[in-house]
Design goal:
Shape: elongated
Distance between the termini: 35 Å
Number of helices: 8
Radius of gyration: 24 Å
Number of strands: 13
Oligomer: single chain
Order of helices and strands: EEEEEHHHHHHEHEEEEEHEE
Largest sheet: 6 strands, antiparallel, barrel
Strand content: 25-35%
Strand order of the largest sheet: 7-8-9-12-11-10
Structural class: alpha+beta
Length: 305
């Protein structure tokens, strides 16, 4: 007996053959898909460890799998059909493909390693990342498991919800981060939040794309924007990351004076080497530099990790 994540385990009555109980396989303990399995039962929603007996069989979420040697190196039937219809021309990834690629790069995984973990062909993973695609639920479950995230995250269904709605860890450990670890986390680039006082004295916190250059935090904005109010003042700049699937994460706060970058060569180098353009779009050619004078940070992990 072999199964994949997302398959259904069905237990039948030995006398009548009628289905007595069924559930979704949500966890594998062996890479080759052999028992035991973690099964979420449809009648109770409980997850238990199951060693299937002779009255149990698997309903595969994807049918027509072929191959007798190494199924992870070749497409499943659904993958093969999609690859056969693969168009030529400039890649135009869909939303799911973009999210898969971002999660894979964030974890510093190659396509080959990710495909091996998800038990799919590297060619099909390349297709998902490069072309609009509608993968099956079982494929998404395998990818989410390989990337340490959730199907909801890959589908983008929680994009309008604030992070942190997942369950807290049973035994969380909150520890302070030292300055060097704070600097290392900040240097990953991305989106951070800057706290400023507007012209009327009201506080404001706004997100900005940022870079770290020579121990300074750099971001682009326009002279009439809210972030521009940071110039000439001491500001707080915060970056964080939450892993909803594992209920853990970190946050870093940097405090220091902000100033405008005025040297033409420096502005040109910053623009040419920027990892991303401002998400807000428009003409944002004013570079602001924050030189942190202090760092504080915290990380939440399971106790003992």
């Amino acid at each position: 007996m072999r199964a994949h994540l997302g398959d259904r385990l069905v237990i039948e009555s030995p006398a009548t053959g009628a289905s007595r109980r069924d559930g979704e396989i949500v966890g594998l303990h062996h890479e080759d898909g052999t028992p035991p399995y973690d099964v979420r039962w449809s009648d109770t929603d409980d997850v238990t460890l199951v060693f299937p007996g002779p009255d149990a069989h698997i309903h595969h979420a994807e049918h027509g799998r072929t191959g007798t040697t190494d199924e992870s190196s070749r497409p499943h039937a659904g993958e093969a059909a999609t690859l056969a219809a693969r168009p030529t021309g400039t890649p135009d990834p869909g939303d799911i493909g973009r999210r898969v690629a971002v999660e894979r790069r964030r974890q510093k995984l190659s396509r080959e390693e990710t495909a091996h973990r998800a038990r799919m062909s590297p060619g099909y993973l390349a297709y998902l990342e490069e072309r609009p695609a509608d993968p099956t639920l079982a494929t998404l479950i395998r990818l989410a498991d390989a990337l340490g995230t959730t199907v909801t995250t890959l589908r983008g269904e929680g994009i309008d919800l604030p992070p942190g709605q997942g369950h807290a860890l049973l035994h969380p450990e909150l520890r302070d981060l030292g300055p060097e670890e704070c600097r290392a986390l900040l240097s990953t680039h991305g989106v951070g939040r800057i706290a400023v006082s507007e012209s009327d004295g009201r506080p404001a916190i706004v997100p900005v794309n940022y870079e770290v250059v020579d121990d300074s935090i750099m971001f682009r904005t326009s002279p009439d924007s809210v972030p521009a109010a940071a110039v000439g003042t001491d500001v707080a700049f915060e970056v964080d990351h939450m892993d909803e699937a594992l209920s853990q994460g970190w946050s870093v706060l940097a405090v220091g004076p902000a100033s405008v970058v005025t040297e033409a060569d420096a502005v040109r180098r910053l623009t040419q080497s920027a990892h991303t353009a401002p998400w807000a779009g428009g003409q944002r050619e004013m570079w602001v530099s924050i030189r942190p004078t202090s760092f504080t940070g915290r990380r939440i992990t399971p106790a003992g990790h």
